[in-house]
Amino acid sequence: MASIGIKEIASRAKVSPATVSRVLSNPELVSQKTRNKVKKIIDETGYRPNRLGASLRTRKTGNIFAIIPDISKPVNAGIVRAIENRAHSFGYSVLLGDTQGMNERGLQYAELVKMGQADGILLFSGDLPFDVNNDKPLYEQIPPLVNANERVDTDGLVQIAVDNVAAAKDAMQHLLELGHSRIAAVTGPMNVPSSCERFNGYKLALENAGLTYDPKLVVNGDYSVNSGEDAVDQLMLLRLRPTAVFCFNDDMAIGLMKKLQTHGYDIPADISVIGFDDIRYAKYTTPALTTVYQPMEEIGLACIDALLDQLKGNPPQPRCDFLPHSLEIRESTGPVSK
Amino acid sequence: MASIGIKEIASRAKVSPATVSRVLSNPELVSQKTRNKVKKIIDETGYRPNRLGASLRTRKTGNIFAIIPDISKPVNAGIVRAIENRAHSFGYSVLLGDTQGMNERGLQYAELVKMGQADGILLFSGDLPFDVNNDKPLYEQIPPLVNANERVDTDGLVQIAVDNVAAAKDAMQHLLELGHSRIAAVTGPMNVPSSCERFNGYKLALENAGLTYDPKLVVNGDYSVNSGEDAVDQLMLLRLRPTAVFCFNDDMAIGLMKKLQTHGYDIPADISVIGFDDIRYAKYTTPALTTVYQPMEEIGLACIDALLDQLKGNPPQPRCDFLPHSLEIRESTGPVSK
DNA sequence: CATAACATGTAAATCGTTTACATCCACTGA
DNA sequence: TCAGTGGATGTAAACGATTTACATGTTATG
User: Fold this and answer.
1) Of the residues A177, A236, A299, B46, which has the maximum number of CB atoms within 10 A of its CB?
2) Per-10-residue mean pLDDT for chain A, 338 residues long?
3) Class of domain B59-162+296-323 (CATH, top level)
4) Is the Cβ–Cβ distance between A327 and A171 less than 8 Å?
5) Distance between CA atoms of A317 and B333, rounded to whole angstroms?
6) Digit-coded pLDDT (tens) for B149-184
7) DSSP of B117-149, one letter per residue?
8) Position B60 pLDDT exceeds 80
9) CA dihedral defined by B103, B107, B108, B110, rounded to 10 degrees?
10) B200 near B213, Cβ under 8 Å?
């Protein structure tokens, strides 16, 4: 594994290091003849330019840091996969930072990019891991960054996500059209933006339908399957039970459905359940889960493209791009039982 | 985001760059007084040493490259999460390389570590992305590497995995004890080691039970949910249908169960189904999936520990550590119907 | 034939650290 | 008093590439 350097190549090819470098990065600047000579040596020796050396000089690492709340969630894994794929196709590598929901972990990761480990950040968590003030434009205070999915509540960022409010309203609309009026919600952690947004959508839909919001019908989950199961206890003990439940992600919906069924409830005859995300397993539950599809692939691609644009030196265009979601109506929702 | 360097700190503190460096990495070498002086400047300026510079000099990047077949698979995501977590706790970052099943992608990633992007490799794919010969011991030809889950068929590697053969036999044993004798198998891609190993376990178990192996009962899947569904067509068209199916991963089991149910089969009354992996969703299917648990967390930790040991300079101890699996008996398997 | 213009190659500076070695200084013990 | 010791700091050379300014060689042109 001992590797040789550009100087060695240069001396073997009887040219200068500069020429070797040019052969590699600006071949058109060197004559056909020397180019071949150098290329031959490179092939023979299996020489690979050391990226650290190059990075140090060019001040570009070719790395992108992805800060993710929890890679073990299928939505995130799906997005990361798309990201990784596209990043590599542009010659970038992706460094993974899973915060496991801990804010401080995000700060540690940000530290790494301050230390020059990466050129830019893909932020999938809702906390901006930088101290910023209002004296200067935001993008002068942070490295190139695009914020996706969990939208940080700050102006001046490039953001990419689905419109959680609208999506939640769509989900609710579907239930309302089925005649439901006692619709429960199982939220995610209320300190994460996506959950708040979906909650807003939930309340808005209720309001638009002329229904009154009943706090007893909302239980705070944490996006885990378990919390979906736990929600059942709270909800089904109510004197007036909900006829439908809107779970803010599929994991909770899956847990909730299972628990409901073990208690003898029939879905959707007794109670309708709707999820959010459309993870791979959503259509394989029994009954198949009605849910809101998030375009993981598209989100991943859009993120990379937006970040790469900044890395090319273009000033960031603060904005929020909403990518289209869609309601996948399957078997877990049905008309309210009389 | 313009950052300053060690020289700037040095001059502001009126000391030499070397002293600043020492304050940061070997504080005991510098007097209390100058130490404080330098620390003060560092705090004031928010200086962070550039990792590239340091890496270049020390020839250590603090990066680990994880080569994964498919991060969107929950097992892999779970392992990666554990890895990332522990790696960071030791000051290492993890670079992600998803091969999406493509061998060549693995080669590209290996290229990156040859270029000095990472200090070591965690290889979760079954292809060793290096040309090796037998003239020299393997570990002199490749960077520090530990191979997990999909075991490369080469001597001299440090490997960590569950014992797929034994695990498959355990799964089969369970079905055999329930009285099944026509047991089908839905394999993974037969060019990946885990699938071959499980297949061997399948055949061995049959053999031990005195049953004859029937090729018509094995269908080649690809570890995807879809291929599990497709297997149904092939299996249930047989004149003599299987009474149980061993799916080589949970995704396929989930697809297969669903399809079976839509065709009116009752699981496990008509047919038993067993999976492999014990992904988070396995216990939430209907019926809950009997499956083989893989200790994702432990695998991740063991990988990092083994790699870090090598990175400390200890020569690798070629071996294969089997981590304990366990059979999770749930509702998808039952006694054979008479 | 002198000179401009262009193609090609070279030498040296640079990026931000670390580290082997040199230096300085104060203190100890004979 | 002075050699010796040892601790604190400074100096300068790496590390491995890229890039700039400059030098050389070659060809074309008037």
Assistant:
1) A299
2) 82 89 88 88 92 94 96 96 96 95 94 95 96 89 96 94 98 98 97 97 98 97 98 96 98 98 96 98 96 97 97 94 98 91
3) alpha beta
4) yes
5) 56
6) 999 999 999 999 999 999 999 999 999 999 999 999
7) S-SEEEE-SSS--S---SSS-GGGTS-SEEEES
8) yes
9) 130
10) no
**Residues of chain A with C-beta less than 8 angstroms from the C-beta of B95:** 63, 93-96
Tokens representing residue A216 in the block: 């007893």
Whole-angstrom Cα Rg for chain A: 26
For residues B122 and B97, what is the distance between their CA atoms, to the nearest angstrom?
A: 10
Quick check: A70 and B68 in contact, CB under 8 A? no
Rounded distance, CA A47 to CA A26, Å?
17
Average pLDDT over residues B278-303: 97
Q: Alpha carbon of A133 to those of A139, A142, A193, A319: distances in Å?
A: 11, 11, 21, 19
- Give all strands (DSSP E) within chain B, no chain letters: 63-68, 93-98, 120-123, 145-148, 158-162, 183-187, 218-220, 244-247, 272-274, 291-293, 319-323, 326-328
d(CA A316, CA A307): 9
Domain ranges of chain A: 6-49, 61-162+296-325, 164-294
Please state the rounded mean pLDDT for residues B126-145.
92
Q: What is the mean pLDDT of residues B65-81?
A: 96
Structure tokens at A269: 């005859």
Give the pTM.
Answer: 0.94
A52 → closest Cβ in B49, B52, B257: B52
Q: A252 by DSSP, 3-state: which? A: helix
Distance (Å, whole) CA B319 – CA A98: 30
Residue nearest to nucleotide D10 (CA to C1'): B16
**List of long-range contacts for A133-142, beta carbons under 8 Å, 24+ apart:** A138/A318, A139/A315, A139/A316, A139/A318, A140/B1, A141/B1, A142/B1
Helix (H) or strand (E) holding B110: helix B103-114
Q: Do A141 and B1 touch (CB under 8 A)?
A: yes
Q: pLDDT of B5-45, one tens digit each?
A: 999 999 999 999 999 999 999 988 999 999 999 999 999 99
3-state helix, strand, coil in chain B (%, to 5): 45, 15, 40
In angstroms, the CA A257 to CA A228 distance is: 8
In one-letter notation, the amino acid at residue B304 is: I
Second-level CATH architecture of A6-49: Orthogonal Bundle (1.10)
Cis peptide before A287 (omega within 30 of 0): yes
Q: Is A132 on the interface with B (CB under 8 A)?
A: no
Q: 3-state DSSP call for residue B37?
A: helix
Say how far apart CA A316 and CA B329 lie, in whole Å: 54
Indicate if A164-294 has the same CATH topology as A6-49.
no
Which class is B164-294 in CATH? alpha beta
Hey, is the C-beta of A142 within 8 angstroms of any chain B C-beta? yes
Task: Phi first, then psi: give them for residue B162, nearest 5 degrees.
Answer: -90, 160
The CATH number of A61-162+296-325 is which of 3.40.50.2300, 3.90.660.10, 3.40.50.10140, 1.20.1250.20? 3.40.50.2300
Cis peptide before B287 (omega within 30 of 0): yes
DSSP characters for A268-312?
A: TTT-EEE-SB--TTGGGSSSPPBEEE--HHHHHHHHHHHHHHHHT
> Is the confidence at residue B289, as pLDDT, over 80?
yes
Chain B residues with CB under 8 Å of A93 CB are 95-97, 112, 117
A58 CB-to-strand D distance under 7 Å: yes
d(CA B280, CA B277): 9
